[in-house]
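Weekly sync, protein design subgroup
Attendees: M.S., D.O., the rotation student, P.L. (late)

Item 1: inverse folding check
M.S. brought a backbone from last month's batch and wanted to see whether the design step gives back something sensible before we order anything. D.O. pointed out we never logged the input encoding, so this time it goes straight into the notes. Structure tokens as presented (362 positions):
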């Protein structure tokens, strides 16, 4: 009987998926991309972003409906790929224009470094001028929305009363005699994830217990993941019980779809990071990149960002809640991108997460 009840829901979902095409919005989808608009358009906007294509799809479709003659080509890439691809294109002989017209990344430190190193171009508009100072650096990198960094747990694997509310409570749970999180906790692989590296270095800057927490994660055989989606897949399947340092918006999206997950906002401090956007210096259609950026920063765009992607509007983050630590755009983000500091941090991280004698270690 249960399966029979689900069939109409699946049919409605399938029909809903066809609505954009039925409304005249031509769409081409792939595992990591979405193309909207007429194939023969002379105006092609190319966007590369770390935002999950399914989570961000509603925003893209709204912009496309407002600009029906424009072709939008959206590709989802990791934060590291976004950064290294921009640098590699600029290093080509004669650096011809090519690549994306707008880059959106959750690794706001890498975006800031691209600006600092001359890989972005300025854009000034009423929308960018309306941003608070922490959300606009040099008129070249802009916050389009904010996302708290949270802990997420599987409600079937960890009781709510035992879920940690602070990092100190997490440390105590990792040290508990019954080892409830041994082999059942995950965090970012900071060597492969830009957002993971940013969150981990901010922890080191703000929390005197960060080193001890890393050591206990290693002792509990922590699993490292390349993206929030990877971590949520394992959590939803019950392969892990808790994940540390995830993006709230992705977790909320899963919960809305029925995943048995719960979000914890650490009460000692909750980092509030930005999804930031730049127009690359070599953008073929910088004008279209600017057009999309202004849409994202407009009242309608901010409403769509909040409703469709789960991020928080920039204006809603101007006055942070108690315990929330907003991370502003600016030169301060470059500290841990210094090669010597980064090498030292990664050496310490590896030693803690992969201690000698652990499985797979010498």
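Designed sequence read out in the meeting:
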């Amino acid at each position: 009987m249960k399966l029979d009840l689900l069939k109409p829901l699946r049919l409605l979902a399938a029909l809903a998926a066809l609505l954009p095409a039925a409304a005249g919005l031509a769409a081409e989808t792939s595992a990591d991309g979405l193309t909207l608009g007429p194939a023969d358009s002379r105006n092609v906007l190319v966007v590369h972003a770390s935002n999950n294509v399914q989570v961000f799809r509603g925003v893209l479709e709204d912009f496309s409906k407002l600009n029906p003659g424009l072709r939008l080509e959206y590709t989802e890439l990791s934060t590291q790929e976004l950064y290294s691809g921009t640098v590699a294109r600029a290093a080509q002989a004669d650096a011809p224009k090519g690549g994306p017209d707008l880059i959106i990344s959750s690794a706001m430190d890498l975006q800031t470094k691209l600006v600092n190193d001359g890989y972005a171009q300025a854009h000034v508009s009423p929308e960018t001028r309306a941003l608070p100072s922490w959300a606009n650096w040099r008129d070249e990198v802009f916050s389009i929305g904010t996302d708290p960094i949270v802990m997420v747990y599987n409600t079937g694997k960890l009781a709510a009363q035992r879920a940690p509310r602070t990092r100190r409570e997490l440390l105590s749970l990792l040290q508990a005699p019954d080892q409830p999180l041994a082999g059942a906790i995950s965090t970012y692989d900071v060597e492969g994830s830009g957002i993971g590296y940013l969150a981990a270095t901010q922890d080191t800057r703000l929390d005197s217990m960060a080193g001890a927490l890393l050591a206990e994660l290693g002792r509990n055989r922590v699993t490292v993941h390349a993206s929030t989606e990877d971590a949520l897949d394992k959590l939803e399947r019950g392969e892990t019980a808790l994940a540390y340092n995830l993006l709230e918006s992705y977790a909320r999206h899963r919960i809305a779809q029925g995943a048995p997950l719960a979000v914890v906002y650490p009460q000692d401090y909750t980092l509030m990071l930005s999804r930031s956007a730049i127009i690359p210096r070599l953008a073929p259609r910088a004008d279209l990149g600017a057009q999309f950026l202004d849409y994202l920063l407009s009242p309608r765009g901010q409403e769509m960002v909040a409703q469709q992607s789960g991020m928080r509007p920039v204006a809603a983050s101007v006055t942070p809640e108690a315990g929330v630590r907003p991370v502003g755009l600016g030169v301060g983000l470059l500290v841990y991108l210094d090669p010597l500091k980064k090498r030292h941090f990664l050496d310490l991280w590896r030693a803690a997460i992969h201690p000698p004698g652990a499985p797979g270690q010498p």
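Discussion: The longest helix spans residues 2-22. The longest strand covers residues 141-154.
Action: P.L. to compare against the previous round before Friday.
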